[in-house]
Amino acid sequence: xxxxxxxxxxxxxxxxxxxxxxxxxxxxxxxxxxxxxxxxxxxxxxxxxxxxxxxxxxxxxxxxxxxxxxxxxxxxxxxxxxxxxxxxxxxxxxxxxxxxxxxxxxxxxxxxxxxxxxxxxxxxxxxxxxxxxxxxxxxxxxxxxxxxxxxxxxxxxxxxxxxxxxxxxxxxxxxxxxxxxxxxxxxxxxxxxxxxxxxxxxxxxxxxxxxxxxxxxxxxxxxxxxxxxxxxxxxxxxxxxxxxxxxxxxxxxxxxxxxxxxxxxxxxxxxxxxxxxxxxxxxxxxxxxxxxxxxxxx
Length: 298
Hints:
The structure is a single chain. The strands form 2 sheets. The protein has a 5-stranded mixed sheet with strand order 2-4-5-7-6, with helices on one face. Strands 1-3 form a two-stranded antiparallel sheet. The longest helix is centred in the first third of the chain and has 80 residues, at 33-112. By secondary structure, it is α+β, with helices and mostly antiparallel strands. The two termini are 65 Å apart. The protein is 62% helix and 13% strand. It has 2 domains: 1-117; 149-297, Histidine kinase-like ATPase, C-terminal domain (Heat Shock Protein 90, 2-Layer Sandwich), CATH 3.30.565.10. Helix 3 (119-143) crosses helix 6 and helix 6 packs antiparallel against helix 8.
């Protein structure tokens, strides 16, 4: 209201001054006030009608300005989201490039040595390169909400068995005992992404276990796949953060190859596939990751 009155103040003052001037003329020349009253009230009514009309226009203008500000704010929010997504993508690939340099360098060093005992170690490094490459190739697929997921029914054993074959040299080198019985259970999922999810958890268990055990089991009543190890475990304060991008925690400080990429991808895939993941861990006792599949897989 104050802004409206300020906008039309000059007009109101002008009309009132003009009416006062006419009143003064009538008073000085002793003219009949009957003649003055009619145009006086007519001028006030016309002024009031004009102000009412301008008031409605003013309200529309204010409404348009508010809508414009809202659209401007929403546009800025979307722009910020886009910039944040671009930055996240850039950060991810910078981490990935840094991470993949380690196995490449190690492979080159091992290739310079022609002793056969190094073949197993070289294979492990090449497996890491393949795993990091798969992460990079699937990152855009996971983060793009417009990209369709190809869901199908698949036996869990068909997802797990190739991973066990791929990491067999690492199991042998680290003298880790695998406890696994083929799981014939069918689940509805996106096979490629689900396999990456399982692979990252398995790789994480291998990374932090030596001379230990890894169990892979299916819990029928909870519709969950459990991957458990008896490795060094995770500090309680680290558990809520292990799926954050770039977070490696205390265990990461002990392992220079840890960058926090793998479990971050696990979280993204879990959200995209609607397959919740839960982690339980006790320091120096072990860690259990559980992937829950949709009940419609029954």
